[in-house]
Amino acid sequence: MKILIAIGGKEFSKPTLDLGMKIANSFKSSTTIAYVGKKISQFSEKDVSVVHQNLDDRQLYRPGIRTLEWAYDFLISKNYIQETNTNKFDDYLLVDEENSRMKVLLKEQHSDNIDLIMRTGEIIEQLKDEVEVNKHDITIIGGGGNKGIHNKLIQFIDSDVFVVKNYSVNKKYKILLPVNNSKGSDKAIDTAINFAKSYKLKVEIVAVYEDKKSHQKTEKLLSKTKGKFLKNKISATTKILDGSTVNAIVNHAKDDSIVILGVSPKNPIMKYFFGSKPISIAQKCNCPVLITK
Amino acid sequence: MNESYKIISSSILFWFSQKKWFVYSILVSIFLLNLNTPIGLSVPAYHSLIILVLVFMLVTFEPIPFPAIALLTLVLQVILEVAPPDKVASSFMNDAVLFVMGSLMFAIAIVHQGLDIRLARFIVFIFGKSKRMFLAGLMSISAILSSFLGEHTVIAIMLPIGLSVIKNIDTQKTDGKNAVLITLFSIAYGTIIGSIGTPSGGARNVIMINYLQEFSNVHIDYWKWMKHAYPILIIQLAVAYFVLQFTFPSSLKNIKMRGFKKKVENKSIKKDINHLFSCLIIIGIIASWFAFNDIYGLGIIALGGALVFMIFGMISWEEINKNTNWGVILLFAATISLGFQINETGASSWLVIKFNELLNSLPSNSINVSWSIMAILSGLTANFFTSSATVSLIGPMAIELHPTDISFALSSAIASGFSFLTVISSPTAMIIYSTGLVSTKIFFRVGILMFIISILILYLMSQFYWVTL
Fold first, then answer.
1. Contact map slice: A 34-73 vs B, CB within 8 A
2. What SS3 state is found at B53?
3. Of A84, A244, B140, B349, which one has the greatest count of Cβ atoms within 10 A?
4. Residues in chain B whose beta carbon is closer than 8 A to a beta carbon of chain A?
5. In chain B, what residues touch A45 (CB-CB under 8 Å)?
6. Which of B418, B31, B387, B382 is nearest to B192 (CA)?
7. Taking CB atoms and an 8 Å cutoff, what residues of chain A touch B114?
């Protein structure tokens, strides 16, 4: 499995980085930590590039490197990587790769599993490109900032998207798994099983019915899903919610929930202009939300 | 749903989300093309104005690469019968375009020589007695150099000096943050203000000189421009110093001058001969701009500078090729070509008639009102559209307003250099922003004050000083 963790400002990215690394460690995945720098106007892009080269030559940190250095120090402080005398960040080399991608190489590689990279440009375009080229399975992003960006990332990035919102290390999380009869939901169930196994998390499976006729169908779906978890020796509870799907799930999700749900089967054009239930849930929930694809 | 359908529609949607401003610009252009040609305007003139609107939208929102915008501008001029192909081709290349090309190459050659340490030593030697004097020195030296060598050259040399000074400042505390901002803004404002000083300070100045020569047969040489613009530069510098002290009050305790001085003094400078030779070339080029710009043009002299650096092996062609923004050169060439057609087709005269009609409808109308509107419009457009492109497109109108009075054309070009409001307005602003230490909000907050004061200074100088020249 390959995981991409997108970081921005130092303090705001702590929970994203922390949860991202926990997931990466439990799945023994290779991880890329990416910082996407500000988009530069075409008028000035060459001038900016010359200045940045100049800063490198004078051993002055170019913008973005400080954030990656902070991320590296954070990983060391949390024992995600072991610091030695030879893999200190001071002695880094920035390798210019294709398509505005730069990779940080330390004198002695800290680990084969963690890459620090820097990209410059429009965030959606850059992360989409990163996922496509390097075939990441999960993209982990912070929950703050512009909601439109989350919406577009969920829509356009070709990987699962984990929006880390209001995450705290001290909370004991449980998985909240909304299900229905879609293909996306099946993928979400598989992912939830993997997560629950790796973290030993409790699982609550929920389904929403909007009219009484579908009650029986919903119950059947819940017991079938619960069976899948029991087969994997994971304890799970079920619950039927009523009301509109988005509101019912958002109201039911607590601060200590990790919501895992499948991508909407809706037409992409309709999704772009009118949104979708998973996107609305990810926007409204005040807890981490993983949308599987 | 069919998977391939999903993939295709998702790709189209992503393209649309990235290029929506291209689609909107084309739709607006098609809509305008389908309207009746306004009375008093010929069809080619109307079409030239539609291309102008299209270029404004495309350059502002950047949905497609600049070279593509440039090519589209040229193609549309011919397809929409604004001008025949030969005329479009001949208006595509002139001294202003050569200047843009030459100054960009010359800048890369200069920056490549690594003169910043030597310059830092010089600034420390002259202004190193106190921290505030040092900041004033950074600002003044940036302004003087920028007035001759252009913004992009000077900011590339000065920024490493500024960042070395503020390297270890803790920006979590207000005093530290203000110390960082005042240092960066001293360099940025010095560089921006300096660029109005001489024709070679910015491509927009050369573009306006070219337009004046072509459209009004008025010639402005290097020295004449300086006499008009340099006093404004000096007053602006003094004002900017106090505006920054007022906006970012700081004890400057966080700036460790001793450490910086030691670092600068201990740094070995190996390229003594190269540096000496570079300085000689720079001085030679500036002197040639003064002495021979009437004969050879500013562009050819700038190209000559880059040529000398290459001939003596002080920079390779690969380095110049890699770092020259060819897209910007193509774009300027295309917008200047469009500017010529706007004038030739009579579109600029029509716009000026409409502008005057609008002014006549105002309760008080005078030459001062039209000057103010034109200067503010130039300044604001430049801030949202970049200065040189603004002058290449608005320049013909500014000249047409008062063809015999150079104060309108000069004011339009100088006001376009007041790129204090947005980070996209000039290379300096974008480079400072790209450090991640300055936000767009802070840039605007300080800039709005500087912009208003600068327009006032320009107005007063044009009213009371230029008339004496």
1. 37-38, 40-52, 54-55, 57-58, 60, 63-64, 66
2. helix
3. B140
4. 1, 6, 9-10, 13-14, 17-18, 62, 65-66, 104, 108, 111, 114, 116, 152, 155-156, 159-160, 163-164, 167, 323-325, 327-328, 386, 424, 426-427, 430-431, 433-436
5. 325
6. B418
7. 57
Pick the residue of A41, A96, A154 with the most B CBs within 10 A to test the interface with B by mutation. A41
Largest CA distance in chain B: 77
Interface confidence, given as ipTM, is 0.81
- Domain A2-164, CATH homologous superfamily name and number: HUPs (3.40.50.620)
Question: How confident is the model at residue B251, as a pLDDT?
Answer: 84
Mean pLDDT in each 10-residue stretch from start to end of chain A (293 residues)? Answer: 86 85 85 88 84 76 80 86 70 74 70 81 90 92 76 87 87 90 87 87 86 75 89 88 87 91 82 82 89 89
The encoded tokens of residue A202 equal: 């409790």
Residue A223, C-beta contacts closer than 8 angstroms, at least 6 positions apart:
A238
Structure letter (DSSP) for residue B201? G
Which of A145, A48, A99 shows the shortest CA–CA distance to B435? A48
The predicted-structure confidence for A130-147, as pLDDT tens digits, reads as follows 999 999 999 999 877 666
List CB contacts (< 8 A) between B160 and chain A. 51, 54-55, 58, 60
The candidate with the shortest Cα–Cα distance to A290, out of A134, A127, A164, is A164
Count other Cβ atoms within 10 Å, centred on residue A181: 11
B153 in Cβ contact with B111 (< 8 Å): yes
Contacts of A52 in chain B (CB under 8 A): 434
In tens, the pLDDT along B417-468 reads 999 999 888 889 988 888 888 888 999 999 999 999 999 999 999 989 998 8
| pLDDT exceeds 80 at position B91 | yes
**Residue range(s) of every CATH 3.40.50.620 domain in chain A:** 2-164, 174-292
Instruction: Give me the residue from A51, A66, A152 closest to B431, CB to CB.
Output: A51
Taking only the tens place, the pLDDT of each residue in A251-264 is 999 888 999 998 88
CA distance B430 to A184: 43
Q: pLDDT above 90 covers what percent of chain B? A: 50
Q: What is residue B425's predicted lDDT score, i.e. its pLDDT? A: 86
Which residues of chain A have a CB within 8 Å of the CB of B69?
A: none
Is the Cβ pair B436, A58 closer than 8 Å? no
Query: What pTM did the predictor assign?
Result: 0.83
